[in-house]
Design goal:
It is a single chain. By secondary structure, the protein is an alpha+beta fold. 44% of the residues lie in helices and 20% in strands. The protein is built from three helices and five strands. Strands 1-2-5-4-3 form a five-stranded antiparallel sheet. Strand 4 and strand 5 form a beta hairpin. The chain is rod-shaped and about 110 Å long.
């Protein structure tokens, strides 16, 4: 009788290959989810940078027309988001209409309001940020000149810019 000597295993088995493919697939799915989250964050950050620029634009317009700004010519509440505001009338009315039209064009459901107390002006911009929302969280961040409020129920973001004219 001849005895079979054990042969050393060479190569990989089909089960090992399948396990490696499953591990690789899970890793690739995780990277795809990370990419989706990154795109959403970038989209939201783009809107926030636009809002910051637009709020400072209106503040500059108010400083350029300071006499009218001090007489409450720029004060208004949130109108309906529309890019068809009539650009006519006084310089303050033209500035408000142009600014509201730009908000409606640059932001989804974008609108704004202006409040004034003495020389302190508060410019608020509101827009729908559902597309950029990663997960619903309630937070409020405050800085010296700007405040951001996140409303989790409706997806509406509000950016508040305070300055003196």
């Amino acid at each position: 009788m001849s005895a079979f000597s054990p042969v050393a295993q060479r190569g990989t088995t089909l089960i090992e290959v399948l396990i490696a493919l499953v591990v690789l697939a899970i890793g690739l799915l995780g990277m795809a989810l990370l990419q989706v989250t990154s795109v959403q964050s970038n989209h939201s950050a783009y809107y926030r940078s636009q809002v910051s620029i637009l709020a400072s634009d209106l503040a500059d317009r108010m400083r350029a027309n300071r006499t009218a700004a001090l007489t409450d010519a720029y004060v208004f509440d949130y109108p309906t988001s529309s890019s068809t505001h009539s650009v006519s009338g006084t310089q303050a009315q033209k500035d408000k209409a142009e600014w509201l039209n730009t908000l409606a064009q640059a932001l989804p459901e974008g609108t704004g309001k202006v409040e004034k107390s003495g020389t302190l002006v508060t410019i608020s911009v509101r827009w729908n940020d559902n597309r950029g929302r990663i997960k619903p969280t309630a937070s409020t961040e405050k800085t010296a000149s700007a405040e951001k409020t996140d409303s989790t129920d409706t997806g509406v973001e509000t950016f508040v810019y305070r300055t003196e004219i």
